[in-house]
Design a protein that fits this description.
elongated, alpha/beta, single chain, 217 residues
Length: 217
């Protein structure tokens, strides 16, 4: 079955373009920033679906709500997940934006409250993340508790350490340096963390599959 819908995806940070293309045939653009949607809609009038995964805000203003609302008003389906997309979807889902995944649900239920929870610093050339998102850290720490690797108290201590580190500098190395975990527990936790896919990436994959399904409806 052929897909005749035009799809634009803003990502590159949570999931590399090549990995995303294996799931969904679309036009891929770097993490979205203020003005990108205005420019896109002005230049390309035939867009059917926009998926926002990653966004910029550290050195440039974040994508505005009005930009997304303009796309919705023009009949474009706008989907958000994982990071900036999840945040904006939680703010605009009553106006028609579609949110997908764990992070979106966390924001919409008030369980995730801060922009800081999904924020990372990126390499502007490769879009590679140079820090860890707090939402990914918390997800993996919760899993480590369920696996019996750490206790609830240790999880809370590690969360508080991670939260106290300014997001561009938030890495597991810095967190573990400040933690009081034994070397044995630390090593077990590191092995577990390396085995589990980031929840932001899991959400991105779910959103790409959702949009693919939409495209063939």
């Amino acid at each position: 079955m052929e897909n005749n819908k035009k799809i634009v995806v803003f990502t590159g940070l949570t999931i590399p373009f090549d990995d995303a293309r294996e799931i969904l045939d679309a036009k891929y653009m770097p993490p979205i920033k203020r003005g990108d949607l205005y420019d896109l809609i002005e230049k390309e009038s035939d867009i059917d679906i926009i998926l926002i995964i990653d966004g910029q805000f550290h050195n440039t203003p974040a994508v505005a709500h009005k930009e997304i609302m303009l796309a919705l008003d023009k009949g474009i389906t706008v989907v958000g997940a994982s990071s900036m997309g999840a945040l904006r979807a939680s703010e605009l889902d009553t106006l028609g934006m579609i949110g997908i995944g764990y992070v979106y649900n966390g924001y919409s239920k008030g369980e995730i409250k801060s922009d800081d929870d999904v924020a990372v610093i990126l390499n502007p050339d490769s879009y590679e993340a140079l820090s860890e998102a707090l939402v990914n850290i918390d997800y993996k720490l919760e899993g480590a508790v369920e696996e019996g690797i750490i206790t609830d108290t240790e999880k809370e201590d590690l969360h508080n350490i991670a939260k106290s580190i300014y997001y561009p500098h938030r890495t597991y190395a810095k967190i573990f340096k400040e933690s009081s975990l034994s070397e044995d527990k630390k090593n077990k936790l590191i092995r577990y963390i390396n085995q589990v896919e980031d929840i932001k990436k899991q959400d991105a994959i779910e959103a790409l599959k959702y949009v693919k399904k939409l495209a063939y409806e």
